[in-house]
Amino acid sequence: MPPPTVEELVDGLLAGNRRALSRLLTLIENDSPEGRRALRLLYPKSGRAHTIGLTGSAGAGKSTLSGAIAREMRRRGRTLGIVAIDPTSPFSQGALLGDRIRMQDLTSDAEVFVRSMATRGNLGGLAPSTAGVVTALDAFGKDVVLVETVGAGQDEVEVAAMADTTVVVLTPGFGDDVQAMKAGIMEIADILVVNKCDLPNADLIARQLSAMMDASPLARKTPIVKTAGAHGEGVGELLDALEEHRAYIATTNVRESHRLAQARHQVLTLARQRLIDRLVAQHGGDGRIDALAEQVARREIDPHSAADLLIGE
Amino acid sequence: MADDKIRVLIAKPGLDGHDRGAKVVARALRDAGMEVIYTGIRQTPEMIAEAALQEDVDVIGLSILSGAHMELFPRVVKALRDREIKPDEVLLFAGGIIPDADIEPLKGTGFQAIFGPGTSTEDIIAFVRDWAAKRPARAT
Predict the structure, then answer these.
(1) C-alpha distance from residue B75 to each of A80, A167, A304 (Å)
(2) Alpha-carbon Rg for chain A in angstroms
(3) According to the model, what pLDDT value does residue A251 have?
(4) Which among A19, A195, A242, B101 is least buried, having the fewest CB atoms inside 10 angstroms?
(5) A141 and A214, same structural domain?
């Protein structure tokens, strides 16, 4: 039997076929010509889902909390796509994707679709094709698409350029309040979660975060929710905060300006990658890039001049 | 920049909780450059098939030590078929404690290889790579 065409798969996806969805996610993830064709067809059908980004340091409990959020969303009647991202090894280019372990019980619920992705060399906390995968799950008709980033440090803020609502997960012992005042990951939070709140000092860190938010010049005060994802504690409150934020961005013009900024970011990111691919395709074979790199390494010219020479031709 | 990774699901059906072998294989395949989804222990055939569907894997490796393979493995194959995943579309292999007498009957249900104790991970990697080199196109 010949493989299906992209158009057939897209029709299948829009009709609710999960196998077609899954196949398309692979094509999109591989950034193949078929994947790009699929996204052209799917993009106009997307934009309806509430996209939520969940980020925080490794071991903060993101996967467990994703599972708990999904269970509560299901209790409230929402359908859900989850994109769980784990790192690619810089040495072997392989990856071990283990986020499903924390979501085993969800596998028996046909209204929850979990997809694991590897970062494939991308920095910033996401995989390169995450936005496309979210678009497909959104077009499939999921009410909510939850993206769980790799364990993030202070600067993996890319998820905010993709989600309607960004949740930053912290744990007690995450550092003193000076850490909290640092720029980067703390600033992208629409909701702050203190997870593992059954550990000592959870109240202390929640109070410190609250004091920091009181001093913030932003119009909307970032809510702080205490959860214990493993026991489901506080997850109802987190869902309330998510719904509140969704209503907030829908009733103000925040969502429109947010999505405009995100679209701009996405277009520029893709254009940048295309330009680099074109340069490499053009000069990778003729040795021009290697020749310039050698000149720079020998200190004969500086890197800026070499870049000018490369693109100036 | 198309990038066709080999995606593998490593799963443990049934009730035995010894997943050292599964983890060794998962890690070896990762170190060979594959993307390996590990689901954890005590999976039902339906959970395994559902994970294979959602993750669109090329390869499914089952590990079992409990002796229930003749009961559980055909149910995995059926759960895959129920989801329109045919044995010729994925590479299905297994490892663990499986008597020689059971190997041919399992191959008849769609398993392409059974790796017993003492198998080198190099052999498993080579087997998966050989299969992947010949895998059919996903879409046109």
Answers:
(1) 27, 40, 62
(2) 21
(3) 84
(4) B101
(5) yes
Residue A5 at interface with chain B, using a CB cutoff of 8 Å: yes
Residue A181 has pLDDT above 90, yes or no: no
User: Model pTM?
Assistant: 0.91
Window 41-60 of B, Cβ < 8 Å to A: 43, 46-47, 50-51, 53-56
pLDDT band at A49; cut points 50, 70, 90: very high
Residue of B nearest to A137 (CA): B54
Say how far apart CA B13 and CA B63 lie, in whole Å: 7
**Does B140 contact A2 at a Cβ distance shorter than 8 Å?**
yes
* A14: nearest Cα among A112, A145, A132, A141: A141
Percent of chain B with pLDDT over 90: 72
CA distances from B103 to A82, A118, A184, A216 (A): 37, 34, 56, 66
- Kindly list the residues from chain A whose CB atom is less than 8 angstroms away from the CB atom of residue B85: 19
What's the total number of domains in chain A?
Answer: 3
Q: Please give the distance of CA A73 from its chain centroid, rounded to a whole number.
A: 19
Domain co-membership, A215 together with A290: no
In degrees and rounded to multiples of 5, residue A222 shows phi and psi of: -70, 120
CATH number of B7-133: 3.40.50.280
Number of Cβ atoms within 10 Å of the Cβ of B110:
18
- C-alpha dist (Å) from residue B18 to B12, B13, B62, B95, B96: 9, 11, 13, 12, 10
- CA pseudo-torsion sign A19, A21, A24, A28: negative
- On whether both A222 and A145 belong to a single domain, the answer is yes
Instruction: Give the number of beta-carbon pairs within 8 Å between A and B.
Output: 110
